[in-house]
Amino acid sequence: MEEKEFILQLLNPKTQNNAFQKLLSDYKRPLYNHIRNIVLDHDDTNDVLQNTFIKVFQNLNNFKGESKLYSWIYRIATNESITFINKKAKLNSKTSQELKTKIIENLEADIHFDGNEIQIKLQKAMLTLPEKQQLVFKMRYFEEIKYEEMSTILGTSVGALKASYHLAVKKIENYMHKN
Amino acid sequence: MNEFKINNENKITSGFTTPEGYFDDFSIDTNNRIILPKSRIKVISINTKRWVTSVAAVLIIAFSITFFTKMEVNNSDDNVLMENYITNNSEISQYDLITLLDKKDIENLSVELNLNDTKMDEEFANTNEIEYYLTE
């Protein structure tokens, strides 16, 4: 099915329910992983994921089709996640980086994390990166999103993304080697 | 110790997990929040009706002003009625008045009534009730 046709189905009250079920089924898992990599906590991810789908549904009329539906949905999810983590940090009188550090430090006690020592170490290594680099690294390494798609989601050129990922890898390897 | 090379290692996953059946429950919850409210409940936005609220508020204030102004007029009517009632139906005797009025009040009364000896003589000369006043 073509994307235009799918969007029309989402907008048509008669076909809306079925089309939305398909959208949920296709996107809930990859979007969960994307959001979880940013906000880190499961319950927070659940809230942000629901808000993302609500925003997608409410703004379908405004979707102009200039980018792919996939990029548009990921852009909403990314913005929602960043806004959420910033707000939560502000509420706790911390920077978003400090908040993430606290969550990662308590990762072993998190019932929704079953990582081993190297996985915790990798999470800690990512914290040493600037926020944009963290995002680029996670989207490329964990989610395996292509640079071209990442470029339309983040509004950054492919070249800049490649450079950012390369730098991130170097810093992470350095951290993993030293610690 | 060998240097750590991320691309030479086995892929490291994030380690994040979800509760069992989470994604099934998520679909149900999200449908309840998005599809059902939209199809079953007609949502009336408060924002779109804001002008109605504003007009209602203005009308209430306008009616309130009229009402309270009227209340004040009624109060003054009530005062007149009360005075008349006291004047016509009061059981206050002249003895009570004498007790209640002090020297200053009496002086004020004499100024208001402009009483003097000449006037009083004229009054006594022309009234048949002089004896009554004298005994009172």
Task: Please describe what this structure looks like.
Chain A has two domains: 94 residues, Orthogonal Bundle (Rna Polymerase Sigma Factor, Chain: A); 65 residues, Arc Repressor Mutant, subunit A (Orthogonal Bundle). Chain A is 75% helix and 0% strand. Chain A is built from nine helices and no strands. In chain A, helix 6 crosses helix 9 and helix 7 crosses helix 9. The radius of gyration of chain A is 18 Å and the shape is globular. Chain A starts with a helix and ends with a helix. In chain A, 29% of the residues are buried. The model of chain A has no long low-confidence stretch (mean pLDDT 93). Chain B has 136 residues and is mainly alpha-helical. Chain B has a domain of 45 residues. Chain B has six helices and no strands. Chain B is rod-shaped and about 140 Å long. The termini of chain B are far apart. The model of chain B has no long low-confidence stretch (mean pLDDT 73). At the A-B interface, helix 2, helix 3, helix 6 and helix 9 of A face helix 1 of B.
